[in-house]
Amino acid sequence: MSLAKILPLLLAAAPIALATPLQATTPNPPSDGPAAGITTQLPHGAVPSHYAITVTPDAANLKFTGKVTIDVAISTAMPTLVLNAADLTFGDVMLTPAKGKAIKGTAKVDADAQTVTLDFGKPLAPGNYKLAIAYAGVINTQANGLFALDYTDNDGAAKRALFTQFEAPDARRFVPSWDEPSYKATFDLSAIIPTGELAVGNMPVKSTKDLGGGKTQVTFGTSPKMSSYLLFFGLGELERATKMSGATEVGVITGKGNTGKAQLALDASVSILPYFNDYFGVPYPLPKLDNVAGPGQSQFFSAMENWGAIFTFERALLVDPRFTSEATKRRIYETVAHEMAHQWFGDLVTMAWWDDLWLNEGFASWMATKVTDKLQPDWQMLLTRVDGREAAMSLDSLATTHPVVQKITTVDQVNQAFDAITYQKGEAVITMLEGYADEDVWKTGIRSYMKAHAYGNTVTDDLWKAVEGAGAKGLVSIAHDFTSKPGIPLVKVDSAQCQGGNTLLTLSQGEFSRDKKDKTPLSWNVPVMAQTIGGAPQRLILQGKGQMTLPGCGAYVVNAGQTGYYRSLYPAANVEALAAGFTKLPAIDQTGLLADNFQLGLGGYQPMGLALDLIDAVPATATPAVLAQVPGYLDSAYAMLEGDQAGQAKVAAYTSAKLTPVLTGIGYDAKPGENPQVPVLRSALVGTLGEMGDKSVVAEANRRFAALASDPAALDGPLRNVWMAIIAKNADQATWDRLRTLAKGAKTDLEKSTLYALLGGAKDEKLAQQALDLALTDEPSKTTSAAIIAQVGAEHPMQAVDYVLAHRAQYEGLIDVSARSQALARLGGGSADPAMATKLDAYATQYLTPESRKVVDRAIAAINTRIETRTRLKPALTGWFAKK
To answer: Smallest Cα–Cα separation from 795: which of 856, 726, 844?
Structure first.
């Protein structure tokens, strides 16, 4: 089924004729609600200021009842009140003027528009009112609205916990409300819960009341003024561990017995909060800040920044020493930092409408990298910005891309806006603009922006004006270019001449594209920073054509420090010189040059051999963080030769020859005192060599797996899941059955869900089919089944897509409602089969609207580009690896 398109509701021009208006006191003009020119799908004229909500969950029967009283100011005569509501049924509706008697209303639901219209028999005059509504709703089994997660506790007992997920438009599944970001209000939340369970909200518990009969009423403190999507409620047999960070109580909430596994998250929160208080210049305003861990998973998000009560799935928050990798620990730290950054960027100051979602996500991503690098310098987190930039450019190089600031009109478009352009391009553009502005000027501008707009809503220009006002002259024009225009600038070096000990560069600007090279290129104001190896960096705002004089002669880098969001196309001689001088470059430039040149080769802008020569130039003595990049590029080359066994064998042989000495040097197991980046490198090496079937690595995986029979801890350690993935990929029936037995008997839900997902990774199609069939049974948890199917999709995309199409209704019950229009595209988007593009297009034509099929169109574009690239590059790849 296609997801319903939300249609804007038109405000009636005048009250209903021949009716006497319902009167109320004349209010002051509302200061909240959408400003002029801001999108809204609700009629203008009514603005909530406070919600008092009482909910009574019935977890066993997956339903709840609720009562809400809303303080509403009406500024212009209205025939009815229209609120957002989804999957709710309505009882009594009463409207009481500030002075006057209550009037009973009727509720009419529009399921497609996700609204309820409240009619009181008379038009509503301007004034202040209290709106009281009794209603009931459903508890979902996926992460939309109020949802249930079933799990097995540490004693093996079956348990159920409840949580909420409201971003983007799902608070309306919990309470009838003005569920748009510009309608900020304060919230009082009360819940009637089973006595003995722990209830969690945005604010600390204010009071509890024993109601008898095994029920307790819990009331939380009044929230600050905030958008509805930030409201949170959690309930279950949970426990909380806390520390103080200044005046703020910081906590982690988990299932009983698991708070120790959240120690990394708790310690990270305590360290990060003072940094953010100082950086933003506005102290965190709530009395507590919890990280709430929920069992299970979503295929589409890991964590949510509810103000004061961040929700995170366990797999992105808890550390289990039996199998948590070093890379996962770092992701946990960064996830904590990302969601904490949202407490300011997103929660305190919120985008006015979803067009500017990147103001939340791009900034949280950028700040998470920044604070993690500051507090954990050994992790070299700034290098990961290159990976983020590349993730964004993979979308941005196709004609189906979109600007950072994009027009959003429907619910599906909101849900589809959470992509690499919003997150990683947002982070990359901010990185570039901070570099242009100067770090201190940028921070001054951010502080000014926070203070000016606290508890309010903004658009992107508000930020640019604040930073330019702090001293970053000319920033607005650069920022407008990179946030309002899609695509990637291509900075081309037309010539480079050594003159008197300096290098004169002549530059021109174009646009990098993977599928529309013949299009008229867009133009940007591009802040270029260039330098010769060892020379002082020089800056230029490139508009069309320009020249730069760099101190020194020899090899040069046109995106020095890799802060620019653009590709750099060099003469072949300079790429060769960079390869020769590779070890003299900073690690960030080594990482960026590998990525940039590999993509230029894929795009046909230069011979692929130049990029491979650069990869070949990375010595075994390079920093581990840079060495860890090499396996990924070789794995990409291996994948591009899919179906060519002889060609893949040559890539595998080269990979083994280049990487095995590195792996031998660091060993399979951690050593005391090793470089902090070595565990990440070890994982990359073992994973890639195992993926290519390296005999030594596969034999080691088999040896360790066999040892489980006599030693249950034989695989324990940070590489456990890497070894298990190799076993699963190469599994025969007996091995697959053994993995399934291990999954059934896993001691924790986190381990259980990981093992079940691995069952979908078998390269044997028969076993993949068994995994698909298993996913539709009750054996895996309701949130693990989709992960099994996703694993099959990674190895056998057509098989997974065909299965989902044959069981579409069942599959859609296994994923978040908000992501259903994207799911098939994600399953099949990694294919290089023309039939997949045809199949996805037919699916979108039948089931999706033009607005909701955009992710499918991006997947189709990626598939077609992948097919063209592989066809074009096969001779070059096989030729290069044959010579090696």
So the answer is: 726
Which of 691, 570, 673, 572 has its CA nearest to residue 635? 691
* Pairing mode, strands 248-255 and 233-236: unpaired
> What tokens appear for 793 in the block?
């999709």
389: enclosing H helix or E strand: helix 384-396
Residue 168 preceded by cis peptide, ω within 30: yes
In angstroms and rounded to an integer, the radius of gyration of the C-alpha atoms of the chain is 28
Rounded Cα distance, 379 and 375, in Å: 9
Dihedral over alpha carbons 272, 273, 277, 283 (to 10 degrees): 170
What are 101-159's pLDDT values in tens digits? 999 999 999 999 999 999 999 999 999 999 999 999 999 998 999 999 999 998 889 99
DSSP state of 482: H
Q: Using CA atoms, how far apart are residues 251 and 559, in angstroms rounded to an integer?
A: 42
The token pair that represents 213 in the structure block:
């009969």
Nearest to 164 by CA among 236, 218, 72: 236
CB 686 within 8 A of CB 719: yes
With beta carbons less than 8 A apart as the criterion, state whether 163 and 142 touch.
Answer: no
811 contacts: CB under 8 Å, gap ≥ 6: 786, 789, 804, 823
| Contact assessment for residue 644 and residue 680, using Cβ atoms and an 8 Å cutoff | no
Question: What is the phi/psi pair of residue 831, to 5°?
Answer: -75, 160
Residues 6+ apart with CB under 8 A from 479: 429, 433, 460, 464
Q: How far is Cα of residue 167 from the mean position of the Cα atoms in its chain?
A: 12
Angle at 692 between CA 688 and CA 698, to 5 degrees: 85
Q: Residue 745 contacts by C-beta under 8 Å, 6 or more apart in sequence?
A: none
**Which residue in 372, 392, 391 sits closest to 381, CA to CA?**
372
Per DSSP, 124 falls in state B
Cβ atoms 508, 568 nearer than 8 A: no
Tokens matching residue 69: 């009283």
Q: How far apart are CA 333 and CA 721, in angstroms?
A: 19
Distance in angstroms (rounded) separating the CA atoms of residues 129 and 20? 17
Cα 834 from chain centroid? 29
Residue 518 pLDDT exceeds 60:
yes
d(CA 411, CA 6): 6
Specify the DSSP element, H or E, that contains 230. none
Stretch 506-529: mean pLDDT: 95
Rounded to the nearest 10 degrees, what angle do helices 749-758 and 733-744 cross at?
Answer: 160
**CA pair distance 320, 376, nearest whole angstrom:** 21
Distance, in Å, from the CA atom of 599 to the CA atom of 514, rounded to the nearest integer, reads 9
Pairing of strands 46-58, 63-74: antiparallel
Picking from 870, 877, 868, the residue whose alpha carbon sits closest to that of residue 647 is 877
* Residues 6 or more apart in contact with residue 79 via CB below 8 angstroms: 12, 15, 16, 119, 123, 124
Q: What DSSP string describes 202-249?
A: SS-EEEEEEEETTEEEEEEPPPPSB-GGG--EEEESEEEEEEEETTEE
Contact yes or no for 198/253 (Cβ under 8 A): yes
Rounded-to-integer distance, Cα 481 and Cα 485, Å: 6
**Bridge-based pairing state of the strands 567-569 and 205-212:** unpaired
Q: Which residues are catalytic?
A: 339
CA distance 368 to 353: 23
Question: Whose CA is closest to 366, among 422, 438, 427, 444?
Answer: 427
Q: What integer pLDDT is reported at residue 749 of this predicted model? A: 87
Residue 397 pLDDT level (bands cut at 50, 70, 90): very high
DSSP states along 625-677: HHHTTHHHHHHHHHHHTTT-HHHHHHHHHHHHHHHHHHHHHH-SS--TT--TT
What order of strands is seen across the sheet that includes strand 538-542? 538-542, 526-532, 556-557
> Among 676, 752, 681, which Cα is nearest to 719's?
681
How many CA atoms lie less than 13 Å away from 497 in the CB half-sphere? 8
Q: How confident is the model at residue 17 (pLDDT cuts 50, 70, 90)?
A: very low
